[in-house]
Design a protein that fits this description.
alpha/beta, binds pyridoxal-5'-phosphate
């Protein structure tokens, strides 16, 4: 690897030249089944014709003009996101961490504007991941990522994920909001219980707190609903999106109710690139596909099938695999053997996956896969698991 790059990633010795649907082609011509999808980003696979044409059309017209002027495609995208969700206001950024930063600022401003300037603390959950900026690292509180980067940004505390008693005990006069991933991604595909999600909404209402959901990874159709919190039939006050929203083009979005966004007036926030015409064109094209009749039902169906196959696989190889977890096409394979080594062996056999905490292999394929790709992935998983069990 070139020494010109800061060596912040442990990259595999592999480079890709092109992608087509759920497949990636390496520079040596080898084909890989991509069940990593750029870490849950390429929601519609690679080179989706509708996305390619949206990007090409826009590229020939206008790339960037700044937020000093109206951007019609951004207005349209914001209106569509609102129509499909609890939200009434949207701010566009370029990444997940920036979408959360907007959320953090909105939370402080909301309480400041509504007579509670002393309320600024956000209660988050252990095991979560919100990005790599100082504020998002502080919000997640993962000591591994904070090491050497302290002091933390003040105003963030964490409690055990799923534990309502701990959460209630952490609320004080300075608490402003609760921040939760409905399904923790990097944390190991840990899904919040439906009752927990409902209880979060109730406790926020009881104490006048804002509920900020981080759906950067679990949102945009990944679980078989457009947003993961829909499974709990609750609505947050604020939500961060990114990853799948652009299908591979960088974009983030912070969605909020009109009430929560009351303080986000002219001059309070901004982004040079956020909401640029290229990103807006692609994200609108992503929505065209995801909102088409039957798309999300298809994700649920394929997700259920894949999950069932993974359970059977784990049952056949108890010395290698412990089980599966997750919802829709946001799945985790619980490993007995080291998950990192499993990811490497699967890659050698032509299947791309991603590691996560709790010794879990993340399986986050493009949402466009069908039974054929499930079968293809299972054949590789079976081969690797059987080979491992034999060698042991
Ligand atoms: C990836 C991720 C982020 C950070 O997104 P970036 O675009 O890398 O800043 C935040 N929250 C969750 C849940 C994520 O999975």
């Amino acid at each position: 690897m070139s020494e010109a790059l800061m060596p912040t990633y442990a990259r595999a010795e592999l480079a890709f030249e092109r992608g087509e649907g759920p497949y990636l082609f390496a520079t040596d011509g080898r084909r890989y089944l991509d069940f990593a999808a750029g870490i849950a980003v390429n929601a519609l696979g690679h080179s989706h014709p509708h996305l390619v044409s949206a990007l090409k059309d826009q590229a020939e017209k206008l790339w960037h003009c700044s937020n000093l002027y109206r951007i019609p495609a951004g207005e349209r995208l914001a209106e569509r996101l609102c129509e499909q969700s609890f939200a009434e206001r949207v701010f566009f950024s370029n990444s997940g961490a920036e979408a959360l930063e907007c959320g953090f600022k909105l939370i402080r401003k909301y309480h400041d504007d509504t007579g509670n300037p002393g309320r600024y603390k956000v209660i988050g959950c252990q095991g979560s991941f919100h990005g790599r900026t100082l504020a998002t690292l502080s919000a997640a509180g993962n000591p591994k990522y904070l090491e050497g980067f302290r002091p933390e940004v003040p105003g963030f505390v964490q409690v055990a994920f799923g534990n309502m008693n701990e959460l209630r005990a952490a609320i004080d006069d300075e608490t402003a909001a609760i921040l939760v991933e409905p399904i923790q991604g990097e944390g190991g595909i840990r899904a919040a219980e439906i009752d927990y999600m409902k209880a979060l909404r109730r406790v926020c209402d009881e104490f006048g707190l804002l509920l900020l959901l981080d759906e950067v990874q679990c949102g945009m159709g990944r679980t078989g609903k457009l947003f993961a919190h829909e499974w709990a039939e609750i609505a947050p006050d604020v939500m961060a999106l990114a990853k799948g929203l652009g299908g591979g083009f960088p974009i983030g979005a912070c969605l909020a109710t009109e009430k929560a966004a009351v303080g986000m007036t002219v001059g309070t926030h901004g982004s040079t690139f956020g909401g640029n015409p290229l990103a807006m064109a692609v994200a609108n094209a992503v929505l065209d596909v995801m909102l088409a009749e039957g798309f999300l039902e298809g994700v649920q169906k394929t997700g259920d099938l894949l999950r069932a196959r993974l359970e059977e696989l784990a049952a056949r190889h108890p010395a290698v695999l412990a089980g599966s977890r997750g919802r829709g096409l946001m799945l985790g394979l619980e490993c007995v053997v080291p998950a990192g080594e499993m990811v490497a062996r699967l890659r050698d056999e032509g299947l791309l996956t991603v590691g996560a905490a709790e010794n879990v292999v993340r399986i986050v394929p493009p949402l466009i896969i069908g039974e054929a790709q499930v079968a293809e992935a299972l054949a590789i998983l079976e081969r690797v698991s059987a080979g491992w069990a034999e060698a042991a």
